[in-house]
Amino acid sequence: MLDSKTAQKIADEVMNSLGYNINVMNKNAIIIGSGIVERIGTFHETAMQTIRDCAIYEVTEEDAAKLQGVKAGINMPIVSKDGKVLGAVGITGKPDEVRNIGKLVKMTAELIIEQEESMNQFYRHRNDKELFVTMLLSDSPGMSSEEMKRWGHRMGYDMELPRAACIISIKGRPNTGGYERLLDRIKRSKSHSKQDLSVVMSAGYILVFKKLDQTEPWRIEQTLRDYQEHVLEHLDKDDQQAIRFFVGDYHAGINGYRKSYEDAAAMYHSISLPQDTALFFSHRRLTEGFYNQMETEARERVLDPYIRLLEDSFGKGVMDAVLTMKHLLENGFRYEQTANEMFLHKNTVIFRKKKVDQCLEIDPKGNMNDLLLMWLIICRYLDQIKE
């Protein structure tokens, strides 16, 4: 398509490079781009012949005096890759002087149009994909699963393939600035296939629905570990150290995309995750998943009384106690490792753990139900702090 904006771009770029005045006409032979503003919007008679015959026409000064809206020069058809005549481009000047650069001008005009069309196609595809993902994540998209599958197919995605949601974020990068360039780098990874549906989300991260060959949890882990490894190869050192991946479970069907995304988003928003870990899997965070599924009434009724006990027992030190238990549970009750991570003495960790056990009357190390309860108490306390 040849519009006035592209036509003026052609005129400006050719004139700046070659110094000759350029007129660009649409398929109706109306000048829509020119170095002479007064000529824009006027009819060019020779251009009409050029467009009609798809041929080059030269105009001498004597010829120009007999024609409407025409000056001496050469007029050439602008032809698209599929052979359609889009318009014409004319060079003002004596034909003998401008004839040698005519092919260059015609080629430049057609190249600029091709580039503009490629960019327009890119932005149309990106906007269509962003809208498509928005609909996938909606509780009520207003379209059937079959309609969604057909929409995906038109964009080149086989929606029957299994995928898992993966949120990719950079610590310290709270908005979308720079994520377009990051996604471009990610797409260069040999593990990122054309069936990986990826967009930059306005929330300030990248969302990739990663195609899976197999859907067992351990297979998902292997696929995403390979993906992470290859993505890191295309990042600079700072981004390598700050990037994090949050992977949701696989859920079948079109509605499964939203569920998988919700799994990943819950981890992304969690403040109870280890800060020194870069790759998280929803099926490895079942306790938090269970906590997120609890109704507010159940959280208040079951967990809040335990938190009040901790607050009464530890006072202003309740946060230290909760974080100590969190690290201790994550480290499998290895006291020395926990102490090193928290820059504490080992005896301090032991003391806090014993005090929590006595306060809550639980034994998370020796009783699986108490272990689950302790994790839920930690999730609830950190959730309240976040709020």
UniProtKB/TrEMBL annotation:
<feature type="domain" description="CdaR GGDEF-like">
    <location>
        <begin position="144"/>
        <end position="266"/>
    </location>
</feature>
<feature type="domain" description="Putative sugar diacid recognition">
    <location>
        <begin position="2"/>
        <end position="134"/>
    </location>
</feature>
<dbReference type="InterPro" id="IPR041522">
    <property type="entry name" value="CdaR_GGDEF"/>
</dbReference>
<feature type="domain" description="PucR C-terminal helix-turn-helix">
    <location>
        <begin position="324"/>
        <end position="369"/>
    </location>
</feature>
<dbReference type="InterPro" id="IPR008599">
    <property type="entry name" value="Diacid_rec"/>
</dbReference>
<dbReference type="Pfam" id="PF13556">
    <property type="entry name" value="HTH_30"/>
</dbReference>
<comment type="similarity">
    <text>Belongs to the CdaR family.</text>
</comment>
<dbReference type="InterPro" id="IPR051448">
    <property type="entry name" value="CdaR-like_regulators"/>
</dbReference>
<dbReference type="InterPro" id="IPR042070">
    <property type="entry name" value="PucR_C-HTH_sf"/>
</dbReference>
<dbReference type="InterPro" id="IPR025736">
    <property type="entry name" value="PucR_C-HTH_dom"/>
</dbReference>
<dbReference type="Pfam" id="PF05651">
    <property type="entry name" value="Diacid_rec"/>
</dbReference>
<dbReference type="Pfam" id="PF17853">
    <property type="entry name" value="GGDEF_2"/>
</dbReference>
<protein>
    <submittedName>
        <fullName>Carbohydrate diacid regulator</fullName>
    </submittedName>
</protein>
